[in-house]
Amino acid sequence: xxxxxxxxxxxxxxxxxxxxxxxxxxxxxxxxxxxxxxxxxxxxxxxxxxxxxxxxxxxxxxxxxxxxxxxxxxxxxxxxxxxxxxxxxxxxxxxxxxxxxxxxxxxxxxxxxxxxxxxxxxxxxxxxxxxxxxxxxxxxxxxxxxxxxxxxxxxxxxxxxxxxxxxxxxxxxxxxxxxxxxxxxxxxxxxxxxxxxxxxxxxxxxxxxxxxxxxxxxxxxxxxxxxxxxxxxxxxxxxxxxxxxxxxxxxxxxxxxxxxxxxxxxxxxxxxxxxxxxxxxxxxxxxxxxxxxxxxxxxxxxxxxxxxxxxxxxxxxxxxxxxxxxxxxxxxxxxxxxxxxxxxxxxxxxxxxxxxxxxxxxxxxxxxxxxxxxxxxxxxxxxxxxxxxxxxxx
Amino acid sequence: xxxxxxxxxxxxxxxxxxxxxxxxxxxxxxxxxxxxxxxxxxxxxxxxxxxxxxxxxxxxxxxxxxxxxxxxxxxxxxxxxxxxxxxxxxxxxxxxxxxxxxxxxxxxxxxxxxxxxxxxxxxxxxxxxxxxxxxxxxxxxxxxxxxxxxxxxxxxxxxxxxxxxxxxxxxxxxxxxxxxxxxxxxxxxxxxxxxxxxxxxxxxxxxxxxxxxxxxxxxxxxxxxxxxxxxxxxxxxxxxxxxxxxxxxx
Lengths: 394, 250
Ligand SMILES: Nc1ncnc2c1ncn2[C@@H]1O[C@H](COP(=O)(O)OP(=O)(O)OP(=O)(O)O)[C@@H](O)[C@H]1O
Ligand SMILES: [Mg+2]
Description:
The complex is a heterodimer.
Chain A: H1 11-19, H2 25-42, H3 49-74, H4 82-99, H5 104-128, H6 133-152, E1 157-159, H7 165-171, H8 177-204, H9 212-234, H10 241-259, H11 261-271, H12 273-278, H13 283-309, E2 311-313, H14 321-331, H15 344-362, H16 367-388
Helix pairs in contact in A: 2-15, 3-10, 3-13, 3-14, 3-15, 4-5, 4-6, 4-13, 5-13, 7-13, 8-9, 10-11, 11-13, 14-15, 14-16, 15-16
Chain B: E1 6-15, E2 18-28, E3 33-38, H1 44-52, E4 59-64, E5 67-69, H2 74-79, E6 82-85, H3 97-101, E7 108-109, E8 112-113, H4 115-128, H5 145-157, E9 163-167, H6 175-190, E10 194-199, H7 202-208, E11 211-216, E12 219-225, H8 231-239
Parallel strand pairs in B: 3-10, 3-11, 6-9, 9-10
Antiparallel strand pairs in B: 1-2, 1-4, 4-5, 7-8, 11-12
The structure holds adenosine-5'-triphosphate and magnesium ion (MG).
Protein name (chain B): Monosaccharide ABC transporter ATP-binding protein (CUT2 family)
Keywords (chain B): ATP-binding, Nucleotide-binding
GO molecular function, one term (chain B): ATP binding
């Protein structure tokens, strides 16, 4: 009976699996489509390729930071210092290259190393001293914001030359059309092949396996999404290098989180720390690694922000960036209570937030309205997280 | 009689001022079901924790196959063939059955987890235990108390341990599930495992145990051959009405 082919999922199935915590991405993907249709109807400029290219480039820096936040939330902690870390990283790159005369790549490596060190310190303080991450990372936020100002002294802002590779990477370099399409083909074929071989192995092992129709549905969906993205963005400048970097980082993080022992440990610790200890998992090491990954990604996000602005100033990474990144992770379906969420929620969450911001700007609405709407969406997301999916804090 | 697989001698453990275990002796022989009974707070879970490597004892010695051991963490106890199913089960509600079963011991294929091997093994194991789990891919949060317990026990059996420690395994079970669990304990013995069965329900214990050790306020307050012990004897030893020592002459 076990080896019966699973038929195509019925709507009831889909709803049940959503509640049980699978398919966490479906509601948010649906919400994104609704938002896009709404803004597009309100102002057709929203749908223009040029605007969507901008939207994609705007999303990268915050998205990379949000990806780190997803990892820390999964392990059952929080990191409020990600904005400041990104600000320090941006300052290090800019000040190092312009004032210090370092080659740009050295500045980038130093900035990411700073992130790694911050993550190590936070992780060790949380695991060895048992400090609550909420307050500890709040302290780190303040300290690093001060450090950032010091690095940028006396001018308070440093411009990065427009012809540097970092600025070009974030603003000017796009995949050639033929290359983008080749990537789509390779990815779709690769995905289909993996699915197919997985299905064959499951069948050989006498385990339930996805029906041909379901497999085709998944492959078809992926192909449709990728083709739409490449076609639409290709209508203007195309798919930016930094956008590719972001998507690749999310995909790699997704595999690490779902398919490796480290990722399994991350989920287990976030779900039930005591159970993880009793199962003999390396709890401390895993929590530290999550903080390191988060801060390193935040630093990379800061570097990308500097590249996109062609400058680093006291506002880089400041203000509500850390809140936006955390909101993106949660809106994307990652639970604040630990142990539940997907790497892809960083991508979807940041797209929702940036789409709202971008759409409201096109409608000539001010920052106040954007803040109110984004806040309302966040409230909605956390309500879904807590009530509809039955995820309550223990 | 064979020599014990696992032996504690004069083991003590305190939590601050609370003396949870005082000079406890315990021997577990191959293919033997040893029951540990006692009232609430008698130190049963602490004893299970010592066997599991969760609490290092303050004093006394623990021996596996006659060789002194000191477990630094639960992984070490498991590596020496002692698997513990904790009173609170210690499952991760957010993970599914397979993920919980293999937590910390996942087989890998290259760098990635071998989900297929895990899923197969999970079905085998659950079938052996006669478990009725709807799917091995549902989060354990969606299972009933009995199913969760079976999953926790199955996890204990994964590394083919020599001694299985069950802390209050019948606590949240109904009548039929309790009978199934007692059956399962019999099967564990038949398959060659030794079992330490911790409980405060004397009737459950009398049904399966070979030997019964009574804890009271952290001390061993009586040891009985199961066939020779009456419920009155056990109750008396548990409540301290009178200290008894009978049988125990292995
Ligand atoms: N982690 C701990 N910290 C402090 N005291 C503890 C701890 N664990 C147990 N104790 C104390 O040790 C004593 C024995 O507790 P234990 O949990 O071993 O009893 P038990 O026999 O398992 O009881 P129950 O039937 O309620 O499960 C109790 O007085 C308890 O308060
Ligand atoms: Mg107990």
